[in-house]
Amino acid sequence: MNTKDQVAKGLMLPVMEAFYTIQGEGKYTGHPAYFIRLGGCDVGCVWCDVKESWEAAKWPVLSIEQIVEEALSHPGRLVVITGGEPLMYDLGPLTRLLKEKGFTTNIETSGAHPFSGDFDWVCFSPKKFKKPHPSIYEVANELKVVVFHKSDFDFAEEHAALVNESCELRLQPEWSKANRFLPNIIEYSKNHPNWKISLQTHKFMDIP
Prior knowledge:
Elements: H1 3-8, E1 12-22, E2 32-38, E3 61-63, H2 64-72, E4 78-82, H3 92-100, E5 104-109, E6 121-124, E7 142-147, H4 152-160, E8 168-173, H5 178-191, E9 195-197, H6 201-204
Helix pairs in contact: 2-3
């Protein structure tokens, strides 16, 4: 089986970077976590802070065994699969192997592709640039909407109406617009207490 076929089956994946750090956003803020950032994205957010991840061909393609072996070299057993857009790939094989080795598996995704993988926590962060695939709504544990424009509050409510009832709702200011929109987010959450606030705390701590 050639490399292309193995990528198609989720047995090999392009990895832009993988690193052990502290989760800075959402439900698991403050938890030590091993991040696996996959290369490749077709969503194209104008404010993306990892645009270098978009081109999958730039990054080494590793077997899932290699990826998991490196994860095992760190003491934490929480893994966050992110991107790029990780659901461009079949994540079933990687997450099954991670689970076999005792990891808790999280994903951060725009939901723009069909859902795959065995995850303990699904952070769904929809983007206006590409419509989410319908499969994401029933599995999302957390809806995290990045606020870059005043219209994003209505955008957030549109998606909140579609996720399952147990899904946690969070609003997060886009980093470059935080000073402008954080007061609005605070006021909005006070008036709509079903929404919580997420901050990029890793940037305040100056860690990856």
